[in-house]
Design brief:
The structure is a single chain. The strands form 4 sheets. Strands 11-10-13-17-15-16 form a 6-stranded mixed sheet. The longest helix has 16 residues. It contains 5 helices and 19 strands. By secondary structure, it is mainly beta. The relative contact order is 0.14. Helix content is 12%, strand content 32%.
Amino acid sequence: MITRRETLFGAVIGAAAVAALPAFPATVTKADIRGLPREKIKLVSPPFVHPHDQVAKGGPKIVEFTITIEEKPMVIDADGTQLNAMTYNGSIPGPLMVVHQDDYVELTLINPDTNSLAHNIDFHAATGALGGGALTLINPGEQVTLRFKATRTGTFVYHCAPGGPMIPWHVVSGMNGAIMVLPRNGLRNDKGGPVKYDKIFYIGESDFYIPRDEKGNFKSYESAGDGYDDIVKVMRGLIPTHVVFNGKVGSLTGDNAMKAKVGETVLIVHSQANRDTRPHLIGGHGDFVWEQGKFANPPAKDLETWFIRGGSAGSALYTFLQPGVYAYVNHNLIEAVELGATAHFMVEGEWNDDLMTQVEAPKPIATN
């Protein structure tokens, strides 16, 4: 069990490390920063994404976000299995943030005194100080504000990284999300032409490691710290008990299926903060896929399945051509079917027989 005292002691060590960081000259003055326009964004829970411009209007600005850390139990399957989750803004994954290249991301991170652990945030999109992790480590009852310049375009993971063995534990307990840095002139296809999307959805894939009791039943704990020793033993086996989209089995199926219409172009942002994964849209394709997530590189075309490296986020653009239910899966089909990594798109519209038709309905095998 990890006590509050041990957690706070670890935060003190982290603070000492921050104090030892060398000072570097700023590329802009404080006056330059103060003169930039500001935009305050209200974040929304995945798979949805806050309103944003696909093409930047005007010059760089400071984009303000606020994230509150929440430690809470979450049920992750139909059997009632409980995860002592650590979350950004109460959701797994944390919300997707969207800015444009050369904007400044200004994040206020809040760790309420109702939590028991120290937390921080490491942006893979940021430069220096462990992605901001060295400057944002806060104890319960504290908050901190970090600003960094979004110099590189693409989709990037962010996650909690409080140090040592705490890092994987916090990440696989739900503390991860993504940020998308769009080119100022918007997305481009493989030939450099502009592409736009009608809708955007964010899918965060998680691997969970829930301990079992002597009878094989999943265990539950009063708090996150209480289960630490047992969870680490499962984690070290590298075999997850659950692989899910957006925090639980079935989170994006049924009534929660993502909705679109025939003819609509959808951008799917997919992150996995810990393990490799292989997204696949059954019945569809990736018209344009930024498999590595970086918009400075031309997208691949017409992919059937794409690869997202652990610790990264990628994106795929697809225009739906037929109505119906499309299953979006991790194409390790064992993980999709047995462990939970399946989502659905529900698409409305008219069926196109030219693309597919049943020529003859099932009937008994002909004998002559």
